[in-house]
Specification:
There is one protein chain. The protein is an alpha+beta fold and 116 residues long. The chain has one domain. 45% of the residues lie in helices and 24% in strands. Strands 1-2-3-4 form a four-stranded antiparallel beta sheet. A hairpin with a 5-residue loop joins strand 3 and strand 4. Helix 2 packs antiparallel against helix 3. The protein starts with a helix and ends with a helix. The model has no long low-confidence stretch (mean pLDDT 93).
Amino acid sequence: MARQHFAAAGLTYVDITSGEILALVLMLNKRLKSFKKENCCNMRLSDKMIVKYRSNGTIVKAFLFVNSDHFTRRECISFNVDGFIGFAGWADGQHAAPILEAFVEWVDAIKERDIS
């Protein structure tokens, strides 16, 4: 559903720069913080990310990770070189929900910005 939302918005990696990655990080932090309060699950974004940019400032690939009390650096969202976007493949639906919600919110924000 989240991948389809990205595609339906007409977005590609060419639309993603460091500013968009920062906006995604902020939205993820907000959703994960709310999730922690509601579910007593201490998932949080890792300080480590991997992002490779083209010379024009758009991404080639990006990997954002989450930590918890029981694990470190598990996939949160991955923008793979082949265009595949991955979402917390390790997580069940409940734990993936705040990540997917943040991503959809982020797509809508980018789409709205591009229309204005």
